[in-house]
């Protein structure tokens, strides 16, 4: 079993990984752990493993690491396993993956799968695969501005702090976009494959991560008050019904001649805002138990 591990996870999460590996090794599973060394390395490792005919590659890290491994498996038949070690672990919660090390080890051993249909972001320099969401505007500014040390120390609390800061410092320039050809405008946008956001919090009730298409969440009202209201509604499960929030289903999202906008995919900052978002060619097989 090949495990692709992001060593930036921190000591506590590394200990969690080794508890899972101890259970697997105790049951006679032969393990190979490869640490990533730079952005995109997980994709290279996973692609080489898929080309070599591996039947499964396990991503040990957060949603960004999972997306990198998924990108390497794109277009092949190698299944994707997950040991969630990230801050929010949104994909793991989306698929109700187990939390305990023993249950995770059993899940990887049994290899029951469900489809995971990623999205693709077309950037000026190429495509970027995402498994959960892409955010532009306020959402992207929070991720870009978040100090890595604060994230490692405070976990999800770091996002709360940075969101409060950006509420008063972000300029909320308008975003113009087309969803399946129809024009829209918003202050911020989250294009979601899944129902959840930031961990266990409901964002897009109609989303299905195993099927093609997105739920495009439009935050139509700019300014600090609207951002704070949405932030307060999120942990209460009321964000989809929050005033100024509109959810539009779609298969193809284009962004039209906007001023420079910060963006993120799966909690990692993007170097540039995407020009368009669309489905990957086919789903992956995600191991769920």
Q: Would you kindly provide a written description of the structure presented here, covering whatever features stand out?
A:
- The chain is α+β, with helices and mostly antiparallel strands.
- It has two domains: about 1-120, Rossmann fold (3-Layer(aba) Sandwich), CATH 3.40.50; about 120-280, Sandwich (Tumour Suppressor Smad4), CATH 2.60.200.
- It is built from nine helices and 20 strands.
- The strands form five sheets. A six-stranded antiparallel sheet has the order 7-6-19-16-9-10. Strands 15-14-11-8-17-18 form a six-stranded antiparallel sheet, with helices on one face. A four-stranded parallel sheet has the order 2-1-3-4, covered by helices on one side.
- Strand 9 and strand 10 form a beta hairpin.
- Helix 8 (about 155-170) packs antiparallel against helix 9 (about 225-235).
- The longest helix is centred in the N-terminal third of the chain and has 16 residues, at about 10-25.
- It starts with a strand and ends with a strand.
- About 45% of the residues are buried.
- The model has no long low-confidence stretch (mean pLDDT about 95).
């Amino acid at each position: 079993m090949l495990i692709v591990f992001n060593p930036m996870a921190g000591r506590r999460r590394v200990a969690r990984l080794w508890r899972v590996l101890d259970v697997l090794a105790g049951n006679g599973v032969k393990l190979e752990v490869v640490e990533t060394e730079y952005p995109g390395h997980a994709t290279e490792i996973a692609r080489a493993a898929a080309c070599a005919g591996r039947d499964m590659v396990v991503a040990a890290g957060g949603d960004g690491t999972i997306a990198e491994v998924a990108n390497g498996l794109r277009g092949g038949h190698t299944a994707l396993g997950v040991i969630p070690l990230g801050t929010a672990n949104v994909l793991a919660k989306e698929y109700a993956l187990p939390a305990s090390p023993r249950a995770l080890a059993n899940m990887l051993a049994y290899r029951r799968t469900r489809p995971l249909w990623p999205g693709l972001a077309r950037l000026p320099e190429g495509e970027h695969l995402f498994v959960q969401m892409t955010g532009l505007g306020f959402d992207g500014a929070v991720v870009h501005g978040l100090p890595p040390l604060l994230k490692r120390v405070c976990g999800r609390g770091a996002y709360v702090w940075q969101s409060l800061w950006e509420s008063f410092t972000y300029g909320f320039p308008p975003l113009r976009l087309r969803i399946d050809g129809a024009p829209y405008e918003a202050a911020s946008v989250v294009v979601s494959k899944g129902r959840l956001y930031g961990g266990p919090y409901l964002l897009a009730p109609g989303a299905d991560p195993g099927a093609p298409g997105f739920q495009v969440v439009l935050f139509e009202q700019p300014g600090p008050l609207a951002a704070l209201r949405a932030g307060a509604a999120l942990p209460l499960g009321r964000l989809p019904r929050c005033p100024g929030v509109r959810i539009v289903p779609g298969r193809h999202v284009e962004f039209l001649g906007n001023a420079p906008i910060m963006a993120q995919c799966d909690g990692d900052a993007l170097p540039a805002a995407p020009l368009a978002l669309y489905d990957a060619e086919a789903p992956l097989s995600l191991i769920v138990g």
